[in-house]
Amino acid sequence: MEQLNTGKEIMGLKIWLDGKLVEKDEAKVSVFDHGLLYGDGVFEGIRVYDGRIFENDAHIKRLFESARAIRLKISLSHEELSQAMEETVKANNIVNGYIRLLITRGVGTLGLNPFVCEKSSTIIIADKIQLYPEELYEKGMKIISANTVRNHPLAIPPQVKSLNYLNNILAKIEALDNNVMEAIMYNHEGFVAEATGDNVFIVKEGIIYAPPVESGSLEGITRKVVIKLAKEEGFTVVEKNLTKFDLYICDEFFLTGTAAEVIGIVNIDGRPIGDAKPGPITTKLREKFFKYAHGKE
């Protein structure tokens, strides 16, 4: 799970809140903000590598598309948001870290009507992050299948990266109750959707497979980059519906995400994947992603 720094390291942390940088203890939202009351808002998690905001344009584009889908007006332009993130990164001396960019519906009244909120609120947090212990990237991670079903795509489009993450949180609780850090979520038809916070890939007989976005997964930025890198390396990538059976019999299994990057899965539901260690294609793509993220290729 995402773990922001605690203790002395963040004592001077500065948060960008509605137009200005404030100390973390002063970064407060109203109890009448609909983001708090109803999870009404959108967000992006964005990496910083070597002082550069990774895939900045793609993240902001997705943020605006998510907001448009739920009829949420962002008060800043694309360029203004980019500048605000740059300012926040520099103010916190982040060289390699993580940005959480949030847009809430803003202050309103009790009740679901979003149009009583006069102006959306923008929050930017920039800090260091460690999602999984380093040893899991080397040895691979164990996961389970969640009983919590992914939200129906007609209930809320999976492309919307909304502040309401309760569906994913319930699946995450299942994982933690089983002493693992991730769980695979399936949609209402039984097909693989995504993990609680990452996208899913498997490898079978040298071909890389990924569930389509329509199955109920977020269209991940890291997912897109990894698909591009895989194709450049000569691998065939196929987007198709996957079942639990496909996960059980695959040769390799890995997850991708902004915070997770690329991490191999070596066991699901007590069943080993391949030879129970990250496979060669997973390892190759992890290496290529690292180089790409750090501008080394």
What would your notes on this structure say?
The protein is an alpha+beta fold and 297 residues long. 28% of the residues lie in helices and 26% in strands. The chain contains 8 helices and 15 strands. Strands 7, 8, 9, 10, 11, 12, 13, 14 and 15 form a 9-stranded mixed β-sheet that branches.
Question: Short summary of the structure?
Answer:
The protein contains 8 helices and 15 strands. With 297 residues, it is an alpha+beta fold.
Topology:
Blueprint: E1 14-17, E2 20-23, H1 34-38, E3 41-49, E4 52-53, H2 56-69, H3 78-91, E5 97-104, E6 121-127, H4 134-139, E7 141-145, H5 166-177, E8 183-186, E9 192-195, E10 199-204, E11 207-210, H6 221-232, E12 237-239, H7 244-249, E13 252-257, E14 261-268, E15 271-272, H8 280-293
